[in-house]
Amino acid sequence: MYDLLFANPVVAFIFALSVLVFFHELGHYWVAKRNGVKVEVFSIGFGPELFGWNDKSDTRWKICLMPFGGYVKMFGDSDAASSGVDESVRAFSEEEKAVSFFYKPLRARAAIVAAGPIANFILAAVLFALLYMAVGVPEKFYAGIGEVVADSAAAQAGLEKGDRILSINGTSLDTFDDLRNIVMENPGVDLQTVVLRNGRELQIVITPKEAEVGGKTVGLLGVRPDADQAEYIKYNPAKAVWMGVERTYDLSAQILSHLGTLISGGGSMKDLGGPLRIAQVSGDAAKSGFDSLIYLMAVLSVNLGLINLFPIPMLDGGHLVFYAAEAIRGKPLSEKAQEYGFRLGLTLVLGLMVFATWNDLVQLKVFDFVKQLFT
Fold first, then answer.
1. Reduced to 3 states, what is the DSSP secondary structure of residue 365?
2. Which residues of 225-256 are buried (b: 16+ CB within 10 A; e: fewer)?
3. CB 3.0-4.6 Å disulfide test: which of 134, 150, 173, 332 passes with 178?
């Protein structure tokens, strides 16, 4: 059943994104309802509605054609981005103001907006915790080959994914660290290697490539450890939840640090990926198994939470900046200032999407493929 559902990378991508968007919007919805706000629409995706239903509170829950996001539309919103209250047709009654988002106290509005990203962080921590309980954490990697880098010493020697290296030059190997240490200490040296493959022992020669690392010449093999050839330790729920929170925090710090490096010019903007690369990675994760897909979803959930907290109008972080200004000034920013802010935010978001998609097309060599069709 799993292979049938997730064999297609597009299906895996839509599934992962829909779950993340659902929980993000659920955060907005839940806190809005707790604060007495009427929610008119809860949508997964944009565009024409595929199917939906109305609940007892008259909220329209719907699935739309384009599964690239979602929104919660609250009573009084002029649009799905919650960019302003719409009283252009008529003035709101006191009863309507009581259930309108824009007439709620500043603290309530800020809580509703912040709830979406917070929900993504909670989801990430829960997914990590489930993995730590059900799958566990690799405590010891054996000298197994999980991935072979193209044109590497391992590829030239004929190593394959799933191989287990038993010994090198007569020295038995127990862990992947043993393999790494021997390879690094023997750059350019022919190493007589015994490999276990499909129950049979093979004799091969591997010659680590030379590389300069920290002013020292070391050997590189070009392989990654095999997660299937490892000892895993599972944790109880309390420990797993705490580890999930720690992992979410650490990952957030790493992402922000990497982003800071990019902004300061210390990294490459080519690393910035968009929907095409996310779809590719989702497909690869789905092929590796459900646990790999869950791990990827946890990582993406952290990314989604952080991105929505960026101080860009249209995003949740932009709304929070407006509310901070309102708290300082004692009154909201003018409608014109907010309008210009949302226009700027829309320009930045669309520009970022175009740039990331262009990166995807280049990195996935789509342009090279198209060029070959006409040459």
1. coil
2. bbbebbeeeebeeeebbebbbebbeebbeebe
3. 173
Neighbours of 268 (CB within 10 A): 10
pTM above 0.85, yes or no: no
Q: How far apart are CA 25 and CA 261, in angstroms?
A: 30
* CB-CB contact of 349 with 341 (8 Å): no
Q: In 84-164, which residue ranges form alpha helices assigned H by DSSP?
A: 94-98, 106-134, 153-157
**Burial (CB count within 10 angstroms: exposed 0-12, middle 13-18, buried 19+), residue 342:** buried
Asked if 303 contacts 271 with a C-beta cutoff of 8 angstroms, the reply is no
Q: Give the domain ranges of the chain.
A: 139-231
Question: Would you state the structure tokens that stand for residue 292, as one six-digit string?
Answer: 């790999």
Residue 275 DSSP SS3: helix
Backbone angles phi, psi at 264, to 5 degrees: -80, 0
* pLDDT per residue as tens digits for the range 49-69: 999 999 999 999 999 988 878
What torsion, rounded to 10 degrees, do the Cα atoms 349, 352, 356, 357 define?
A: 60
Instruction: Judge residue 215's burial from the number of C-beta atoms within 10 Å of its C-beta, 0-12 exposed, 13-18 middle, 19 or more buried.
Output: exposed
Contact 205, 193 (CB under 8 A): yes
Chain CA centroid to CA 281, Å: 10
φ, ψ (nearest 5 deg) of residue 316: -60, -40
With contact defined as beta carbons under 8 Å apart, do 73 and 41 qualify? yes
- Spatial separation of the C-alpha atoms in residues 114 and 27, rounded to whole Å: 8
Rounded Cα distance between 188 and 208, Å, is 5
Res 31: pLDDT: 96
Q: What are 125-175's pLDDT values in tens digits?
A: 999 999 999 988 888 888 888 888 888 899 998 999 899 999 999 999 989
Fold classification of 139-231 is Pdz3 Domain (2.30.42)
How many other C-beta atoms can be found within 10 angstroms of the C-beta atom of residue 149?
13
Beta strands in the chain (DSSP E): 39-54, 60-74, 137-141, 145-148, 164-168, 171-172, 191-197, 200-206, 209-213, 216-220, 223-225, 230-233
Would you name the residues annotated as active-site residues? 25
For the beta sheet containing 164-168, the strands, ordered from the edge strand earlier in sequence to the opposite edge, are 171-172, 164-168, 191-197, 200-206
